[in-house]
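User: For my dataset I need records formatted as: sequence, then structure tokens, nothing else. Please produce one.
Assistant:
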Amino acid sequence: MERYICIHGHFYQPPRENPWLQTIEPQESAAPYHDWNERITAECYAPNAASPILDRDQRVIQTVNNYAKICFNFGPTLLSWMETHRADVYQAILEADRLSRERFSGHGSALSQVYNHMIMPLANRRDKQTQAIWGIKDFQKRFGRFPEGMWLPEAAVDLETLEILAALGIKFTILAPHQAQNVKEIGRGEWHDVSGGQIDPTTAYLCCLPSGRSINVFFYNGLISLDVAFGDLLNNGELFAKKLLSAFSDQNDRPQIVHIATDGETYGHHRRYGDMALGYCLYSLESNESARLTNYGEYLEKYPPTQVVEIVESSSWSCAHGVERWRDNCGCNTGMHPGWTQPWRKPLRQAMDWLRDHIAGIYDEAAAIYLSDPWEARNNYIEVMLDRSPGRVEKFLKMHAHRKLTSEERQRLFKLLEMAKNAMLIYTSCGWFFDDIAGIEAVQVMRYAARAMELAEEVGGIRLEPEYVRMLKAAPSNLHVNGAKTYELFVKPSPKIALA
């Protein structure tokens, strides 16, 4: 019986740059580091690129790049920061994917990710499309290949999102066990209810979509993943390995994959020395002949699905109420502030949706003056975001502008595209995840909103801010009067000398 093990890490930080300056300002809560990107890189991302393996006498016997032996995804905005500020770690991550292709039958272990961690079931189809395309194009530029799989932010999923991934050529995604509803054998048999996490996580599944397309889905082992994230498994790498090996079923004579998925920051940031526990776990597994390490792409090629699955629509891995954590006061919170409530989430979502629709109208009308297809141009604007050299800009204009533009027209066009970009960034999921609208994550998405509104006024002469702030008054804060007060205190005073 073939037995395989795969450990997936979702490595992500929200974009933190000042929307006007494109630099990260000091974040006091990250002290003694300049900002949270720096701190978590020092505690997690860098250690996992060179993690020491110790013998029983606590002597270093080797140093390993954990990324080369696990499956992983990094948020594109985090990699963008890392490329500039920690090039050594960035290069180690790229090298890990190259090494994994050698190790796992040509299949790289890096997965792509939806661009700025937008909760896909809450997005409209056009934004879903752009988010997936930006994630793929960013991945291709960095890793030099097309991604086989894509991580969905918070594992939040609906059929429309899967349709878009499948149409773009993505082969698989990863979900939590409670996100499966029914399964049956491909082409025959009856549906069986596997809701509530009853699905067998040791195999791949095929999800057939309304369009006739399909996509593969892996449902990770929930109990072990939970124990890694919140239990004691990272106290001892050898016990971690034994726990994974214990998850195989002796009653099953088919090939099996035991796989887990957690936030990658668990390995070093959330759990100190977690990178070392992971490294020793991998070392121990490689020494054990009863199972071998793999990644999802390799396993899928060797053992395609034999069962089809139906998913739970608009579900996620981190909200018991589906995706309500990102649009309503569902009760989910960090538990760090007893007595706090989150009725601010719904008004913030409503204000952002209102702003998105108005920005879309301005962009659609104004950009059509210059572009053959404004929304196709937005899909491809990621190429300029990744490379703003004159040659790349000229290539973009040649592809999308329906005539030669004057310098003034070019300036106006790129303001429109930056407005459209910021209108995407307002939906970064962390803005709703935590406990108050005055938190740095919610303030950050409101800063993107402010920048989008400023550009809308510059290119369209339309003032959106007064109504947006009025809507924020309906968002009660645990720290301030309401979201409008938070906006006044923390968004309006932001340094606003926009870079050309």
